[in-house]
UniProtKB/TrEMBL annotation:
Membrane topology type: Multi-pass membrane protein
A Pfam family matched in the record: BPD_transp_2
Gene Ontology MF annotations: transmembrane transporter activity
GO CC field: plasma membrane
Family, similarity comment: Belongs to the binding-protein-dependent transport system permease family. LivHM subfamily.
Naturally occurring in which organism (per UniProt): Propylenella binzhouense
rRNA processing is among the record's keywords: no
Protein localization: Cell membrane
Keywords, comma-separated and alphabetical: Amino-acid transport, Cell membrane, Membrane, Transmembrane, Transmembrane helix, Transport
Database matches in InterPro entries: ABC_transp_permease (IPR001851), BCAA_transport_permease (IPR052157)
Protein name as it appears in the record: Branched-chain amino acid ABC transporter permease
Source superkingdom: Bacteria
């Protein structure tokens, strides 16, 4: 286990963490504000990546791909909210799970029909290509650092928006008492639609950022959705700060665990046993982390329905 490898995997874990945050932030807002379980949030991340690929194919410009991803995801989120989600708000959680699972199947098949089953790629923008020397023996891709920086900037802006803006005040009020907010003359349906659209836009932005380093395929959002739910449970449902802390924790634990669990076991076990135990434990580490957090803080690190 070298220092250089540990540094690289730490950066990779932070990068995974900020991508998880972009997805989990919208998911925790929708769940915390509206008490709505949206399993389709993962496919919105996938569709954002596909929108980016389509935008780049038409324009050969990364900024245009960014616009396609963000605006396309926003439009898709608002369309789904109007046609499907709105009919499920007052239904049971089981109905919400079944309804949004149906959307997953539909959009996955739609993506295969439109873009084919072959994975797509999005080129890294020329300005962010290449690597930078961080320390002796450590060259790290500039684009991956850009993902980390973009995620941190979005996290800061989102926290300020939710905590200090009028829109954020309305969102927090809607999470606490939507009936009272409606009695004060606020269009709660429009507010909820805005929350869903904003969450979809964040997921689409995450899909765009991930597209140059991951294969863009119809199932790319499935595994990330599971991780996003782990994040919001650890951080506390409805909490942006909790989503950020939880996402970084999950990203680091998952990445470092998969990289070093076997080496750590070799300090105590025979190599053959370590080779079997290491990967098995590494795949469970984030769930062990979640269980540990819930044991001491059943509502998550930052409590339920707090921003």
């Amino acid at each position: 286990m070298s220092l250089t490898l540990a540094a690289v995997q730490t950066l990779n874990g932070l990068q995974l963490g900020v991508l998880l945050f972009l997805v989990a932030a919208g998911l925790t807002l929708v769940f915390g504000v509206m008490d709505f379980i949206n399993l389709a949030h993962g496919v919105q991340y996938m569709m954002g990546a596909y929108f980016a690929v389509a935008g780049y194919a038409l324009t050969s410009n990364f900024l245009a791909a960014l616009a396609f991803a963000v605006l396309g995801s926003l439009a898709l989120g608002l369309l789904l909210e109007r046609l499907v989600f709105r009919r499920l708000y007052r239904r049971s959680h089981l109905d919400q799970v079944l309804g949004t699972f149906g959307i997953i199947i539909f959009l996955n098949e739609l993506a295969r029909t439109v873009w084919g089953a072959t994975p797509r790629t999005l080129p890294v923008p020329e300005a962010l290509s290449g690597s930078i020397l961080l320390m002796d023996g450590l060259l790290y891709p500039v684009y991956r650092l850009a993902i980390l920086a973009a995620g941190l900037v979005v996290a800061a802006l989102l926290y300020v928006l939710v905590r200090w803006s009028r829109a954020g005040m309305l969102v927090r009020a809607g999470a606490s008492n939507p009936r009272m907010l409606s009695a004060l003359g606020i269009d709660v349906d429009r507010l909820f639609a805005g929350v869903v659209g904003f969450g979809a836009m964040l997921a689409g932005f995450a899909g765009l950022m991930a597209a140059p380093i991951l294969s863009v395929g119809s199932s790319m959002g499935d595994d990330l959705l599971v991780l996003a739910f782990v994040v919001i449970v650890i951080g506390g449902i409805g909490s942006i700060r909790g989503a950020f802390v939880g996402a970084l924790a999950v990203g680091l634990v998952d990445t470092l665990g998969r990289s070093f669990a076997t080496d750590i076991f070799k300090l105590f076990l025979a190599p053959a046993a370590a080779n079997e135990a290491g990967p098995a434990l590494a795949s469970m580490l984030i769930y062990i982390l979640m269980a540990g957090v819930l044991f001491f803080a059943p509502s998550g690190l930052f409590g339920a329905k707090t921003a």
